[in-house]
Amino acid sequence: MDIKKASEITTPSAIRLIYGDPGKGKTSTIGFMPGRTLVIGIDGTSSVLKGKDNIDIVDMH
After folding, report:
1. Phi then psi dihedrals of residue 11, to 5 deg
2. Is the pTM above the cut of 0.70?
3. What is the DSSP string of 1-61?
4. Less packed terminus of the chain by CB within 10 Å, N or C?
């Protein structure tokens, strides 16, 4: 049995996949996500996230 203090409990990271038809605002929506976010860019549309301090981008295209 693993006993830990409630003050030591952390919230796990979340993985999200946003998909949909082209031009529907998927990349723009990412700009509203709270916390640190890693974007894996596959289509060159990451420029709409310019200036977002909490977002890191890996361009794969």
Report:
1. -85, 125
2. no
3. -----GGG--PPP-------STTSSHHHHHTT--S-EEEEESSS-GGGGTT-TTEEEEE--
4. N
Nearest residue to 30 via CA among 42, 21, 18, 22: 18
Tens-place pLDDT, residues 20-58: 999 999 999 999 998 899 999 999 899 999 999 999 999
What's the token pair of residue 28?
Answer: 């723009």
What does the domain layout of the chain look like in residue ranges? 22-61
Provide the pLDDT for residue 22: 92
